[in-house]
């Protein structure tokens, strides 16, 4: 503005309007500049002052303020803590007073008094204590075997009892160990019955109570098990040297040896007797003792008087229980070898009857004295450390001497049994010595062992001998002898004949008549080309005659088939293999259907396990089919289950070639689904016999 003013001043020569204007503007600009300058100076002054104040007044003031705030807090906290300290002063009179009141209140709590009447006040009437008593009606049917409240120790239970005993003993030991880990305090509490009332034990009482409860529970368990242990131990100890008795008396179901063939046909049928007299009577009736023909008839049972003795004299007049001879136990007539217990029981019929036999238990051979004395008692001969033999009395160097001592002294074998030996029971005619038989050639192989052609030493008679493998378990050996037991009472040309059983030692054997043609099945196959229809008809007739006989004896064969028939001279067929047979009108299988010959078995036996002679009739139909098809396999090409299915849906095998129509019609009748629609063997025999006669006539 100044330079413009100077410019105009020069141009206009110090006057004029324009110059005034420029001078104004110049003056205004100067003024503005000077004012700004002044403002600036003032602001600088202010800033300098502020700066000075900031450092000397404001900043220190801020810190002072902070300090005063902190101090204020401290004062406040201090006040607070002071109040707290003041109010929580347990030494203050106020507190002392409160505590006194608390203490006196606590003192007035008496736990024994607080719940003084608790049980009386709150108890309800408990239900009556349950009396656990044995329901005696449960054992009525088994009277004699199972006694109320008494453990039964027999061959069925003894192992179980022993295991149970050892389990219990282990458990008791565990419990006793656990008990010993409890602190004595808790045990003391238990023993005293009450816990102490002093303060220390009261404060520990919750721990003590828990231990006490657990300890008590263990103690109860222990007591319970000890009681059971005692029961089992005393039951097992009761046995002493007696052999574990048989739990299942099979002697009722099995027929006795009948030595006099007259007895077979004359007496009433066993099943009829069973129905008329009831079981116990039939047992007695069937227990008629065997007497050799040369022997006197059965003496009256001796009274149970000490020392009374009687022996069945030998035919040579010698006393079978005389000690003088140099016999061994094996030589004694009353030594029966490994005769099964069921047979033994049947032989001993009167009090005082006795015999000696052998048995195997856990692979160990034991000698057993079996005595009839208010039932049957079996005593195992005990061996002393010195190798002597004894029961409860004195020991002897040989078992024979021990038995003779028992017999001659008339003393009871054991105190518990009171059994006295009155009469030695000699071996039966059927009980052959193993050494009486000379095995020659092996002629077959059975389920239990090999079959041999053999010779009887005494008569040079050719025989067939079925042997039972030594390694088979005891129950298999019993099953093996079952065949002998059944066969020994039968006498019919079409039933294979039993000569005897060898049970003197292992292997046990069944001696039978030798049927030279061997198995019918093999015979049919071997001779299929040469067998005539007439011969085949006669085979069917033989089989029906044998089966008619069995039917009349109430014997169900259950395994009739060509493989189980034998062929003798002149093609005579004999029914054999009675291993599955049962002597009953009706037999219900309860132990599963193991090894059932499905294709030979009637539907009701397969479906419901129900066997009657009419089941044998079904099998007879199959047997005739096998005969006429010359040893073919029935339902060939069909599995067992498929064959069964087809039969259930009505299928029947077609007629074999060249079979007479009547014979096939008879077969179809044998295969009627409902057993009651089948003919019985009496009727079958009549039909086949008539057919055979007609055949002969037409052939002639
Ligand atoms: P298992 O009943 O143990 O099966 P078997 O009775 O079937 O034994 O006999 C097996 C084989 O021994 C028969 O197939 C037959 O060849 C032969 N056999 C059995 N008994 C006699 C006998 N009395 N006479 C001739 N051979 C026999």
UniProtKB/TrEMBL annotation:
Which positions are annotated as binding ATP?
443-451, 466
Q: Which residues form a coiled coil?
A: none
Q: Which residues form the SH2 domain?
A: 334-425
What is this protein's name?
A: Tyrosine-protein kinase
Write out the GO biological process terms: morphogenesis of an epithelium
Enzymatic reactions:
L-tyrosyl-[protein] + ATP = O-phospho-L-tyrosyl-[protein] + ADP + H(+)
Supply the PANTHER family for this chain. Answer: TYROSINE-PROTEIN KINASE
- GO molecular function terms listed in the Swiss-Prot or TrEMBL record: ATP binding; non-membrane spanning protein tyrosine kinase activity
Q: Which InterPro entries match?
A: AH/BAR_dom_sf, F_BAR_dom, Fes/Fps/Fer_SH2, Kinase-like_dom_sf, Non-receptor_tyrosine_kinases, Prot_kinase_dom, Protein_kinase_ATP_BS, Ser-Thr/Tyr_kinase_cat_dom
Q: What is the lineage of its organism?
A: Eukaryota, Metazoa, Ecdysozoa, Arthropoda, Hexapoda
Q: Which residues form the active site?
A: 559 (proton acceptor)
**Region annotation Disordered: residue ranges?**
287-323
Group of enzyme by EC: transferase
Keywords tagged on the record: ATP-binding, Coiled coil, Kinase, Nucleotide-binding, Phosphoprotein, SH2 domain, Transferase, Tyrosine-protein kinase
Q: Where is the Protein kinase domain?
A: 437-700
